[in-house]
Write a structure and sequence with these properties.
Blueprint: H1 3-10, E1 14-15, H2 19-36, H3 43-53, E2 56-57, E3 62-63, E4 67-69, E5 75-77, E6 82-83, E7 87-90, E8 95-97, E9 102-103, E10 108-110, E11 112-113, H4 119-123, E12 126-129, E13 132-134, E14 139-140, E15 145-146, E16 151-152, E17 157-158, E18 163-164, E19 172-176, E20 179-184
Parallel strand pairs: 2-5, 3-6, 4-7, 5-8, 6-9, 7-10, 8-13, 9-14, 10-15, 13-16, 14-17, 15-18, 17-19
Antiparallel strand pairs: 1-12, 11-12, 19-20
Length: 185
Amino acid sequence: MTDHKERMLRGDPYRDNDPVLVAERRRCQELLDEFNATRAGEDERRARLLDDLLGHIGEGSWVMPRFQCDYGYLIRLGRNSFLNYDAILMDCAPITIGDDVSIGPRAQLLTALHPVEDHELRRQRWETAAPITIGDNVWLGGGVIVCPGVTIGDNAVVGAGSVVTRDVPPRVFAAGNPCRVVRQL
């Protein structure tokens, strides 16, 4: 493992142009190209590709194409969970999705962070990443964006188009930009 990959996995600043990281993203993209080119009814082929791609996929879970991610192996998808069309999971840090989760179309789970105040480090393409955790029986509506470091509690519902910038507690309906708790469930 290279220094930059180790740094990425620890959540420390790293550069994504490291040859090992570039090769891992290329392998991921090749599997995604194949997955996204599958035809309707090729469920077994899709399942095999997801098995090769993801760190874990639970029994009864499925992902609709078009699906995009960076590495794949940092994504853990629980049992009976569903990612709808056009999901983007930027997995520079672990993304853990619980059991019985429904994620609407065009949702984005984004773990990457770039320097905000240090303009030179941003110019040099340094970045960090923070994990995302989605609890059991969560529903993310279409177009939801989940930002780095966020945890969404069990049985929460996040309204369509929300931008989740901080943790969402269990058993709430939350919505908006930025996403806020609207009511208890």
